[in-house]
Amino acid sequence: MPAPSVLLDPHWRGMAELFSAADLTRLHDTCHVVWGQDAPIPADVLAGALPQAKVLIAAEPVVTRDTLDAAPHLRMVIEVSGAFPDSIDYAACAARDVEVLSCAPGFRQAVAEMGLAMALTGGRGLIAEHERFREGAEHWLEDHAETDFTLYGADIGFVGFGQIAQEMTRLLAPFAPVIRAYDPWLPDHVAAEHEVTLTSLQTVMSRSRCVFVTAIPTAENLHLLDAAALAQMPRHALLVLLSRAHLVDFDALRDAVMRGHIRAAIDVFPTEPVPADDPIRTASGAILSPHRAAAVKDGRQLIGRMIVDDISALVSGSPDRRLAVADPERIAVLAGATDATQVAAMSKSRQPG
């Protein structure tokens, strides 16, 4: 049997960013790789490779009905930006038994590690005391009972309980916290596996000493955490914003932090770079990170490992997948789809492989 053809166009990401040397060797041992360079694929190379391609990997894959007509052997599309894009015709893919996968789970280790670092830093007041040291105004052996907290036995909340939150729960386990999560998509058995209590958004916000925002953006959760939701948080509680600023009314968040009601550790912002005159830059209750939760050496190479694993599973006929599979109903929500015919078409059952 000839090796399956994999059309690999990761630009704007780099090859070494996504693949370790070992995983790239595995990929080449398993597949015939077309392109796989740190530059956009030329249009003629793309057009020439589509007729034989079984897998298409791209940072921003464009998959239309015409693309599928030109690629009769295509069985898998993998995006490597981090979210299901609106440039893919999901209904057409489902109708032709083409799987669509997202690399989002490959960020989980690096982002979860950053989330834990932010929680520890915010909970123990490290940034505040560091800055006071610079001014000669540090507080020796002094408790900050109102603002500081320990993760041991803490009430922890998650808004969204996907791959990043699940990895964070594993990292938090030695602290034996009480974890509650709001996630209307999460199956009960997944919550049970992680010993997490699924509850309402109001309960998560009102009963948590630290809330992690890890949900993916959808058409339904824009500004889910508005002024009213933020007001439910206990005074001096910490909000750790890791997924997308889309989830939070940032004006309301800024106001809550500036007033001293809550504190926030923020890695993602509605406008990036953050404007020079944005007051959040000088807010004493904020810990700010320039969208670098996954920006650590080799921090994204888990993506490449998962890609090779899933392609190997596809070749062997296994249904197992490590990357996120596009669930038709959920994709309809992510894309803000309202056309009932489209949603029905996207919901046709199929078996991966």
Topology:
Blueprint: E1 5-9, H1 15-18, H2 21-30, E2 32-35, H3 43-49, E3 53-58, H4 65-70, E4 76-79, H5 90-95, E5 99-102, H6 108-124, H7 126-135, E6 155-159, H8 163-172, E7 178-182, H9 188-193, E8 197-198, H10 201-207, E9 210-213, H11 227-231, E10 238-241, H12 250-258, E11 263-266, E12 286-288, H13 301-316, E13 324-325, H14 328-334, H15 340-346
Parallel strand pairs: 1-2, 1-3, 3-4, 4-5, 6-7, 6-9, 7-8, 9-10, 10-11, 11-12
Antiparallel strand pairs: 5-13
Helix pairs in contact: 2-13, 6-8
General description of the model:
With 353 residues, the protein is of the alpha/beta class. The protein contains 15 helices and 13 strands. It has a 7-stranded parallel beta sheet with strand order 8-7-6-9-10-11-12, sandwiched between helices. The C terminus is likely disordered.
List the keywords.
353 residues; alpha/beta; 7-stranded parallel sheet; 6-stranded mixed sheet; 13 strands; disordered C terminus
Give a quick summary of the entry.
Helix content is 36%, strand content 15%.
Q: Distance between the terminal alpha carbons, to the nearest Å? A: 16 Å
Q: Roughly how many Å is the radius of gyration?
A: 22 Å
How many beta-strand elements? 13
Structural class from helices and strands?
alpha/beta
How does the overall form come out from the CA principal axes?
elongated
Q: Specify the number of helices.
A: 15
Largest sheet features: 7 strands, parallel
Give the strand line-up of the largest sheet: 8-7-6-9-10-11-12
- Low confidence ranges: 337-353
Elements, N to C (H/E):
EHHEHEHEHEHHEHEHEHEHEHEEHEHH
Percent in helix: 25-40%
> What fraction of the residues are assigned to beta strands by DSSP?
5-15%
